[in-house]
Every structure is written in structure tokens, then in C-alpha cells.
């Protein structure tokens, strides 16, 4: 069973204390939303989890293996993958070739025929098979997001982090991506979802983590979190538990 343990994580950039003793655990195929105002520390936390930067103190364990001092490719091999808010496909490679790269690079023991077969399965799952020979640079924003999700599926990761998968996406493709996230999670993959699309976060996720100025100020169900005075104050600058974080509206007196 997938288990991610984040313990007393701290990160400083010069005199700026960006993460402050952050603690949480993910066990099993949870679908968790990571939210917080701009500058809360979400990107820094994600970059530590995937090995892009190292913490000043604290530890991260994935399935009983310490990963906070590993390089990104080693973290991916250990079972954690991520997407980026700004998609990072190989733009001059085809959609099909983009899917081959992660499996070939990480060498999970599959031969090229098996990797190719898996890529075809992923293309069909994401309904991108009709675009397999198109260059990635020709895809729409939403299709680029789907392609990034496909590359994660090629990793067979235990846990994936999706960074703003709905940002800049046409509403029709947004619904498709929304549905695929649920299907990937139902298949047994743990997911950390970062998004400013609060309706999607609150409807998809059964648990939310809330960061504010580097502090983890809430960890609970959507109903608990959206009525938490500390969360309301972080988002709106008011201490009013009658304010709905999902909309920013205050209840009528």
C-alpha cells in the first residue's frame, strides 16, 4: 500500500522561511487537494517532494524509503511523479514518442515492445490515439495537459502530483481531465491535486491540505476545511466562519 510520510519539513530561501514544520501522511490511494493562497508554499513543497530542491530540515519517506535527498529521476523511479503548471512536453516529438520517453528513461524492466504496447493503451485510455503521430507542439492546451497525465501513467507511479491540471483549459476538455483524474485514482494511484479551480477540488477530493505562509493550517474533509476560520482568514483576510471559501461569498444575515 502506498504511504507518503512528510515530517517536520522546513525550507528557507535566504531569510525567507517558506515551509515551516510541515507534517502530513498519505496512506493508500487517496485523492488529496493541496490548496492555499498565492505564495503559501505549494510549489516549494511540490519541488521538495519530487526532488527538484532539498529541504533545510525534515524528511520525506515514500513506502519506507527516504526520498528527500534523491534526484528527481531517482524519486520517479521510487514511485512519485508530477506534472507542471506550464506543460513541459517534448514539443518536437510526436505524442506517441512523448509517452515512450519516461518508460525508456526509467528502465522499469519492460522491453521496447511492452513499452510500445503500454503507450498505445495509455493513448486509448486518454482518447489521444488519433493524435499519436502529431507533434506535441500542435496540441491544444487541454491536450497538452492530457499528454502530461499520460506520461505519468507510463511511470506506473504509486503517487502523482497534478499541478493546475485545469488551468487555461477549455471547459469541455476540463470535464474530460476531471473524469480521467477520478478514473486514475479509482485504479489505485494516490493523487495530490493542486488547483485554483475550487469547485473541482471540493468535488473531487475527500481530503484537503491547506498551506498559508508556509504553515499547514488545515488537514481535513472539504466541509471541515471550508468552514475553518483559519482557512477563511487566510483566503479572505477575515475571521468569519459564515464565509464560503469555495466562492468567497458571505452568508446573508
SSE layout and pairings?
Elements: E1 3-13, E2 16-27, E3 31-35, H1 42-49, E4 57-62, E5 65-66, H2 72-78, E6 80-82, H3 95-106, H4 112-125, H5 141-153, E7 159-163, H6 171-186, E8 190-194, H7 198-204, E9 207-212, E10 215-220, H8 222-226, H9 229-236, E11 243-244, E12 249-250
Parallel strand pairs: 3-8, 3-9, 6-7, 7-8
Antiparallel strand pairs: 1-2, 1-4, 4-5, 9-10, 11-12
Helix pairs in contact: 3-4, 3-5
Rounded mean pLDDT score: 90
Query: What portion of the residues fall into strands of 2 or more residues?
Result: 25-35%
How would the global form be characterised?
globular
CATH-assigned fold name: Rossmann fold
Low-confidence parts: 238-243, 247-253
Count up the domains: 1
Output the keywords.
9 helices, four-stranded antiparallel beta sheet, disordered C terminus, 253 residues, single chain, alpha/beta, Rossmann fold
Notes on the protein architecture:
With 253 residues, the chain is of the alpha/beta class. The protein has a single domain (3-220), classed as Rossmann fold. Helix content is 36%, strand content 26%. The protein has nine helices and twelve strands. The protein has helices spanning 42-49, 72-78, 95-106, 112-125, 141-153, 171-186, 198-204, 222-226, 229-236, and strands at 3-13, 16-27, 31-35, 57-62, 65-66, 80-82, 159-163, 190-194, 207-212, 215-220, 243-244, 249-250. A six-stranded mixed beta sheet has the order 6-7-8-3-9-10, with helices on both faces. The protein has a four-stranded antiparallel beta sheet with strand order 2-1-4-5, with helices on one face. A two-stranded antiparallel sheet has the order 11-12. Helix 3 (95-106) packs across helix 4 (112-125) and helix 3 packs parallel to helix 5. The longest helix is centred in the C-terminal third of the chain and has 16 residues, at 171-186. It is globular. The N and C termini lie far apart (48 Å). The relative contact order is 0.16.
Amino acid at each position: 500500500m502506498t504511504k507518503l510520510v512528510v515530517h517536520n519539513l522546513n525550507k528557507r530561501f535566504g531569510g525567507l522561511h517558506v515551509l515551516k514544520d510541515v507534517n502530513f501522511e498519505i496512506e493508500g490511494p487517496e485523492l488529496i487537494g493541496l490548496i492555499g493562497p498565492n505564495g503559501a508554499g505549494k510549489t516549494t513543497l511540490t519541488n521538495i517532494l519530487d526532488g527538484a530542491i532539498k529541504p533545510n530540515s525534515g524528511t520525506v519517506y515514500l513506502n519506507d524509503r527516504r526520498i528527500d535527498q534523491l534526484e528527481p529521476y531517482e524519486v520517479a523511479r521510487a514511485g512519485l511523479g508530477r506534472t507542471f503548471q506550464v506543460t513541459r512536453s517534448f514539443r518536437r516529438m510526436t505524442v506517441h514518442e512523448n509517452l515512450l520517453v519516461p518508460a525508456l528513461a526509467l528502465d522499469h524492466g519492460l522491453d521496447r515492445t511492452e513499452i510500445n504496447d503500454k503507450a498505445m493503451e495509455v493513448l486509448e485510455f486518454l482518447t489521444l490515439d488519433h493524435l499519436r503521430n502529431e507533434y506535441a507542439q500542435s496540441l491544444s492546451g487541454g491536450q497538452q495537459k492530457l499528454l502530461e497525465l499520460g506520461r505519468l501513467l507510463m511511470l506506473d507511479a504509486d503517487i502523482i502530483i497534478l499541478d493546475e491540471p485545469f488551468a487555461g483549459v477549455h471547459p469541455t476538455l476540463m470535464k474530460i481531465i476531471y473524469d480521467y483524474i477520478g478514473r486514475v485514482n479509482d485504479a489505485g494511484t494516490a493523487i495530490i491535486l493542486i488547483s485554483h479551480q475550487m469547485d473541482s477540488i471540493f468535488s473531487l477530493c475527500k481530503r484537503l491540505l491547506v498551506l498559508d505562509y508556509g504553515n499547514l493550517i488545515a488537514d481535513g474533509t472539504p466541509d471541515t476545511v471550508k468552514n475553518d476560520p483559519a482557512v477563511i482568514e487566510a483566503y479572505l483576510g477575515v475571521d468569519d466562519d459564515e464565509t464560503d471559501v469555495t466562492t468567497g461569498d458571505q452568508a446573508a444575515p
